[in-house]
Amino acid sequence: MTPDEQVRADQIRARADAATEVLAIKAGAGTVEVIGVDGVSIATFYTTGDDLDRADANSILYEAARSDVPWLLDRLAAETAEVERLRDLVDEFRKRDESQDRIRTRLTVERDEARAEVERVSDLYCELFDVDSRLSARAMKAEAELAAETERADTAEAALAATERDRL
């Protein structure tokens, strides 16, 4: 509420209270001032007469109150619109929070799945490395056996060739 609106709202409150709690009426040259029970001027009205009593003052205050009603209704509508706007903002922030929670959850699941995949691939690599190591060991053993067999065959062939030469 702006300062001017606050002043007007305070004046309306004071007039509403004064409608039943008028202490005095001061009539001046063309004006009537209504004084509340606390001694503060509640309202000043312009009039052509200066012979007013409490009933007239209350009548004037009721008229002023009647003119205040549309302004108060406009203020109420503006405040209601502001409350709705703020509710919409709160709802939007809640949706953003929920959306961020869903994104966090999805990313956490994806991260966990990626970690599991990395672990699975790492295990496969270790198994393949182990298999490769065993195959390499077998291959080296086979190569050693082949070399030994080749050497035995060469030795046997040399012995056979030597025997045939001796026979001739």
Describe the structure.
The chain is mainly alpha-helical and 168 residues long. The chain has helices at residues 3-18, 54-167, and strands at residues 22-27, 31-36, 41-46. The protein has a three-stranded antiparallel β-sheet, covered by helices on one side.
Question: From the alpha-carbon coordinates, what is the Rg to the nearest angstrom?
Answer: 53 Å
- The SS-based structural class is mainly alpha
Main beta-sheet strand count, sense and barrel state:
3 strands, antiparallel
Distance between the termini: 131 Å
Indicate the mean pLDDT. 76
Order of helices and strands: HEEEH
Got a strand count? Answer: 3
Low-confidence stretches: none
Strand content: 5-15%
List the quaternary state of the chains: single chain
- Strand line-up in the sheet with most strands: 1-2-3
Helix content: over 70%
What is the overall silhouette? rod-shaped
Count of alpha and pi helical runs: 2
